[in-house]
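Figure 2 data, in text form.
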Amino acid sequence: MLQPNPEYVRELIAAINASPFPAHMAMRLASIELDQAVVELKPARQHLQAYGIVHGGVLATLIDTATFWSVFLRSPEGAGLVNVDLKLNYLEPVVDGLLTAEGRAIRYGTTLCYAESNVRSANGDIVAHGTSTLMLLPGKVLTMKSKKFLNDPPARRRQRVRRPPADGIDGCSRP
């Protein structure tokens, strides 16, 4: 079983949150662990569109970022990722309050990975949902001082992430 190095995770979060795009968007990676990531953004005036609600591109960015980082820790140490497909649905308009995108990895392959994310408003309502297909990029490395894993990861093969059912968008359980 993969064991991400906690020191690597701390370095990674610091590096991500200090990088130009998250700083520009005023968003932050709040947490990352195997198969999960949480990204937060407190909307400000620059995040709003002409009607005074959060621009759809902001919600798409949160979904893109949360799905990306939910898959990242399971990727091999010498590989990066790129999003090749992003699909999303806007469910409710948002004006203000902390937005939280919860990314969950669903499937890993030797080339492609699949993840989903819900964006929740400050009161916990799901305001957007999306899925992402990500492609592994061998040789595209994020350089950190610490090793990514505490143990030697097993040979990479396609795997489905198993987790207990969660409430769906419509309030129904899903596998």
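Caption note: Residues 87 and 107 are 16 Å apart (CA to CA).
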